[in-house]
Amino acid sequence: MASQRAMTEADAALERITQVPGIRGSLLISGSDGLVVAERLMEGIDGRAIAALAASLVQRLDRATNRAGMRAPTFVHLKGNSGSVLAAPGRSDLVLVAVASTDANLGLARMQMLDAVGRLV
Amino acid sequence: MTDDIKTLTARVAEEPSSLAFLELGEALRRRGQLDAAYKVTRGGLSRYPALGDAHDLLARILSDQGDLAGAFDAWADALRFDPMRIGALKGLGFLYFRAGDVPAALDHLRRATEIDPDDISIRQAIERIRGATSQPASERARPDSPPVPAAPSGKNLPPAGSAVAAEVMADPGGNGGSQKGIMLVDGNGLRLNGTLLSPSNQDVGDGVAAELAGVSKEAARTSRLLGLGGWQAIAVESPEGNLYLVAPTPETMLLTVRDPSLPMARLGLIAERAAREAREWLVSER
Q1: I need a surface site. Which of A31, A36, A107, B62 has the fewest CB within 10 A?
Q2: Residue of A23, A50, A56, A60 to mutate when probing chain B, most B C-beta within 10 A
Q3: What is the set of domains in chain A, with CATH numbers?
């Protein structure tokens, strides 16, 4: 029952994030193994690839911040030439990930993601 | 001897190859024990001759001692090893202003603002230099007067230039207020230039540089496989600081770290400017 409620909350969070202009999809992934927990993606986007790559990148950055004497990242933005990947690591090894186009409202997406990841876990 | 100096002295004695000499030298300088500070810093420089922080510290000690020529050389050395060292640019700007070379003073301060556009003290210093030089000659600070020792730490500053000097030197550590570090690394995870301090002021540059090689490859892979083209930047928020990574050249990566209070978009602008400086430096080193 509790896990069903958690999934409903996750789906609702992904729905809110995906409604932000320019967001092409969002996923909840497991940070340690890069597997998809829940996803809401536009057609043609490979959720498994995003999950694996985002988890790996977040792990690397986690190690870098750790080496710098800082705590783990709370938000990551990888900016590419034709879009962005956003990641908000949360507790319980979950990471909220979003794929954005170049014209996306990144500020709104960030706020939605931080709000959602704080409530999800 | 105060407790902190005793502790730092013990640390340096226990680990002569550590960077603790920087803290000890700074603590001695702040207490006015300039000869001791000089010896400690010189000793550290013999082990780390390419460490910009050490040259910067030596410059401030020499400046406190009134050895302006020595301070000039030490700041020039600091810039040679770390062209983005704001403290050295400020120091040289101050010395040029004292020497009456206003264009050179403004040039150094402008370079400092390009690296850190948020450091209000530098902009104010530029304004004051402009204001001072627009005054009638009789009211202007004369380069050879008054004969007081320059003190970047803020004491015994020349009256006419004191406002400028105090602002320029408000951040003797050269860390630009909330700046925590800026570092250029190569594709193999080796530090090329710059310094990165942990929240407890330890030099963590080499360790972070080693991790960044993997980050760069991972970012390139992620961006390419997700159809995002090449990667332009990575912004990372952490409770202790914001990190911004850019690639000045395909083989290098520049990390800029600032206090979380600085908006990320602003940090991005600072990082882009620093990347331009880094590109110029890389060209000059070839």
Answers
A1: A107
A2: A60
A3: 2-119 (3.30.450.30)
**pLDDT tens-digit readout, A72-96:** 999 999 999 999 999 999 988 999 9
Q: In angstroms, rounded to a whole number, what is the distance separating the alpha carbons of residues B188 and B214? A: 9
CA distance B170 to B153: 7
B229/A80 Cβ within 8 A: yes
The chain B residues in contact with chain A (CB within 8 A) are 196, 198-200, 202, 204, 207-208, 210-212, 214-215, 218-219, 221-223, 225-241, 243, 257, 264
Interface ipTM: 0.92
CA dihedral B83, B89, B91, B96 (to 10 degrees): 120
Chain B touched by A35 (CB under 8 Å): no
pTM: 0.61
B61: tokens are 């000690």
CA pair distance A84, A90, nearest whole angstrom? 19
